[in-house]
Write a structure and sequence with these properties.
single chain; alpha/beta; 5-stranded parallel sheet; 4-stranded antiparallel sheet; 14 helices; globular
Amino acid sequence: MLGRGADRRAVREGNRLRIELPSAWMSATHARIRREGPAFHLEDLGSRNGTRVGGKTVAHVVLSDGELVELGHTLLLFREALHGPPGTPLDLDTRSAPPPSSHGMRTIVPALATEIDAIERIATSKVPVLLRGETGTGKEVVARAVHALSKRAGEFVAVNCGAIPESLVESQLFGHAKGAFSGAVRDAPGFVRASSGGTLFLDEVGDLPLPSQAALLRVLQEGEVVPVGATRPEAVDLRVVAATHQPLEALAARGSFRKDLLARLDGYSFTLAPLRERREDIGIILGDLLREVAPNVAERLRLSPEVGRALLLYEWPLNVRELRHCLARAAALAGNGEVLERGHLPTTVTQALDDTPGSTQESAEATHDARLREQLERLLLQHEGNVAEVARSLGKARMQVHRWMKRFAIDPKRYRR
């Protein structure tokens, strides 16, 4: 049972669960979700302001995992199950949960919270960390969090490996001596020595040319660096966090990335899920980003129901980075207003409001699903049912692969020897 209450809480009544949410737009007994076999049925209980699923008003509907449910002006994301350790408690009031140790590491997804807990413990060691995930998922934010949690006294030095001209990579990374080449009018420490005692963040490490990979490997193995044009090595105290959106194992198999360097960098691997796969966290991320892009008005800004619906329905192909730009634009257009309206959002985002079942988008999604299922089955066959390896090949979190397999009724055991 879902209805209006004085505060967010879940109350067990026999074998039933009553969820109460503080909203003037919800009825005291607004809607009910009941399970019949494997299906979950949502029923509106004659509420004053109605129940919507995917933006459409409904009286009764069978829910699918990940669907957007609106009770009045309250937006909820339906999940068939919690993906986390057995016995994970139900806690609706995330405001009272202990905050993580560093900005950018907040989540209400149980499985992701478990992974974040692990990386927070790894951060206090010198184990190298490899961050994987699509562009814009916040890999540098996590890298900075790892540095902050490490308590290392040195600097956090970020290097975009894909933005340095190939001819300058080694002098930029390892520094150079005065007179080492034309234009070297003074000694330069380079990124590696500048990060000694701190953290060296190698963003897009897959873009490093092979000669530079060999030189970096020696630095990591020996703990010392020889600047370009110098003759004596200098000791460095390194902690490396690397990031990539590329499948490094595939690059290594093709010979364009050194396997021994990958082994050195991959001390602990953490895959950041794309925003579309962790929509439960959009509310938390919204709050954090608004405090960054509009600190003077963030606390009083509110979202119209239409804006909230659009932000949750949109796929965010460029992930958190795209969401940040979207919110910065919306806050600027709102000016001194306290409510973000549809007109403040880019049309690419509000288009999600106009896509209805039966449209060409539905057909495209069906095609996408068929291709995804085929790809999953092919990878499961290739990796003999090893879900972790399938997730690594796709650059996805294991929980997402499990979610897809459940959706397509795929049993990985059938692919194991």
